[in-house]
Amino acid sequence: MAYLAAVAVLVGLLVVTNLIFTVGVVRRLREHTAELAALRDGGSGGVDVAMPAGSSVDGFDATSVADLPVSLATLGERPLVGFFSPSCQPCKERLPSFVEYAATRPGGRDAVLAVTVGTREETAALVELLRPVATVVVEADRGPVQQAFGVTGFPAFVLVEEGVVAASGYELAPVVDRDAVALPAAG
C-alpha cells in the first residue's frame, strides 16, 4: 500500500510539473501569435526594417551579379531598393509585386536595386526572377548594402531621393505610393 501512495504522489507531482510547463508554453505561444499578427496586419508591427524617411543613406560599394560596381551614385537620383532573403516567406509573397512594379518603373533596371541575402547558391532562384528588372547584389547577412540602409528585417523596401530615404517599410505599397507621387515631379 505504501508503494501505491508513493506512486500516486509521484504521478501527481509529474502532472503538476507538466501543467506548469504547459502554461508557460501557452503563454509564450500567445506572445508569438500577437507578434506575428502585428507583422501581418501592420507591416513591420511598429518596428522599422530599414532607415525611416528623412534619414541619409550611408555610402556603400558592392558588386552586382553581372560583376559591375554598384553604389548609391550608380543608381541615379531616385533608386528603389528591395531586400530579400530566400528563407523568408513574406519575401516570397511580396517578390511578384516588386518585380511587377520594377518592370514598369521609369528608369528601368538601372534605377532599381535588389539585394538578396545569402550565398549565390541559396539566392539563385531569387536572382533569376530579379535580374530582368533590377540591378542585383548578393551579399551575406549584415552586408555593406544592408548596413548602409539600416536593414534589420526582410523584406525591406526603400525609396531614396537624392541620398535621403523618402519612404521605407516592410510592405511595398506605401513605398510604391510615395514613388508614384514623386515620379511626375521627377519626370
How would you describe this protein?
The chain has 187 residues and is of the alpha/beta class. It has two domains: 1-41; 62-186, Glutaredoxin. It has five helices and seven strands. The strands form two sheets. It has a five-stranded mixed sheet with strand order 5-4-3-6-7. A two-stranded antiparallel ribbon has the order 1-2. The radius of gyration is 23 Å and the shape is elongated. The termini are far apart. The model is unreliable at 42-46 (pLDDT under 50).
Structural class: alpha/beta
CATH level-3 fold name of the largest domain: Glutaredoxin
Q: Which strands sit side by side, in order, in the main sheet?
A: 5-4-3-6-7
Radius of gyration: 23 Å
What is the compact description of this entry?
The protein has 187 residues and is of the alpha/beta class. It is built from five helices and seven strands, in the order H-E-E-E-H-E-H-E-H-E-E-H.
Give me the secondary-structure topology.
Layout: H1 2-41, E1 62-63, E2 69-70, E3 80-84, H2 89-104, E4 112-117, H3 124-130, E5 135-139, H4 144-149, E6 156-161, E7 164-169, H5 172-186
Parallel strand pairs: 3-4, 4-5
Antiparallel strand pairs: 1-2, 3-6, 6-7
